[in-house]
Design a protein that fits this description.
By secondary structure, this protein is mainly beta. The chain has one helix and 24 strands.
């Protein structure tokens, strides 16, 4: 009690108002999980014996995936998130103080403590793979693909490693896809990846001239679904009546409520003039005006996940065409 009052007095006297120091030291701990980093910090020495104070921290770090600063207020001295290891990792922490020692108002340290960690510059210049991307085909199997850099030595070998929270350590691709002897993809059918979980990937490589530059990526696979192609749509035609087109959702386990569709309607009139129209819809049917004499109407559909079920999706392939 006595000692904390003395320290409080010291804090107040220091600058005429209450001030608090920023945290002592920030550390960034990389346990080899391909960009999942832990940030830890220690309280300022001037606060260690202050029992009457409530201490919190304001953590700010540059999120290279979202390209913006993330701000977190926390009581803890550690926090983890995902970083792109090929970019700078920039972390700042302020001390926040409240309780009887500040007359119960929150104050923040005037400055922050900061660390900036530069990416390791290992690897031959411009040797990293290009166009890395994954597709969760019909929510059944994930396939990731990439292109070898044209600047990497011909005899280089490529590797894909991945990690997510449930895995103790990184694992290597279970089934490489190769073309002309070069690894250019990975098939996860045998070892399915979890959805709604950050999955971290690294594609790196070795060559007689030295290691290739690694590429890192972190994704949640439910945002990379490509539905299967729908069966050919069915057309109901009665002379002089509107054309009623209907179709089925793609086979498989994607719930119907998660899909949206696009119908492509091509009308060819007797002179051979084409008219093309694309209609977005959440339904699995659509009415078109009655067909005129001697005109030809063709329809095909494709689907993707709607915004209520995923943050992103790929269009399926077009169905076969139905004509009238
Ligand atoms: C502490 O806060 C209370 C209520 O906001 C105020 O009335 C009082 O004057 C403050 N005391 C000091 C020492 O600032
Ligand atoms: C605040 O802290 C940063 C990093 O710790 C330092 O570079 C900067 O000079 C400090 N600013 C002030 C005003 O003390
Ligand atoms: C590729 O990355 C994995 C996982 O971090 C690592 O164990 C391996 O040594 C790396 N290989 C090369 C050739 O850099």
């Amino acid at each position: 009690m006595m000692s904390s009052k003395v320290v409080l007095l010291a804090i107040i006297l220091r600058c005429g108002g209450i001030q608090v120091d920023p945290p002592e030291e920030i550390k960034i701990i990389d346990s080899g999980h391909l960009g999942h980093l832990e940030m830890t910090w220690t309280p300022p020495a001037s606060l260690i014996h202050m029992q009457e104070c409530l201490i919190r921290y304001q953590l700010e770090y540059y999120n290279t995936y979202r390209q913006s600063w993330t701000v977190i207020k926390t009581i803890h001295r550690t926090y983890s998130d995902q970083f792109d290891l090929m970019k700078d990792v920039q972390v700042r922490v302020y001390t926040l103080l409240s309780g009887p020692c500040t007359n119960n108002t929150w104050i923040r340290s005037a400055n922050y403590t900061e660390v900036v960690q530069n990416p390791p510059s290992t690897g031959l210049q411009d040797s990293e793979v290009e166009d890395f991307g994954c597709v969760f085909h019909n929510m059944e199997k994930t396939i990731c693909m990439w292109k070898k850099s044209s600047k990497s030595p011909t005899s280089s070998q490529l590797y894909l490693y991945y990690w997510y929270t449930e895995l103790e350590k990184t694992e290597e691709c279970p089934d490489y896809i190769t073309k002309n002897g070069v690894r250019r993809g990975c098939n996860f059918t045998e070892k399915p990846l979890p959805d709604f979980t950050d999955v971290n990937f690294c594609v790196n490589g070795s060559s007689p001239e030295g290691p290739l530059k690694p590429t890192y990526m972190s994704i949640q696979i439910q945002n990379y679904v490509k539905p299967a192609r729908s069966d050919k749509p069915h057309l109901q035609t009665l002379k002089g009546a509107p054309l009623k087109l209907h179709w089925m959702k793609p086979h498989g386990k994607i719930p119907g409520r998660c899909l949206e569709y696009e119908v492509e309607h091509t009308r060819v009139d007797p002179d051979g003039k084409h008219e093309l129209q694309r209609i977005p819809t959440m339904l699995t049917n659509h009415m078109f005006p009655p067909a005129g004499n001697n005109e030809r109407n063709c329809f095909k559909v494709r689907s993707k996940l709607n915004k209520y079920c995923a943050m992103g999706s790929f269009w399926s392939a077009w169905s076969h065409t139905t004509c009238h």
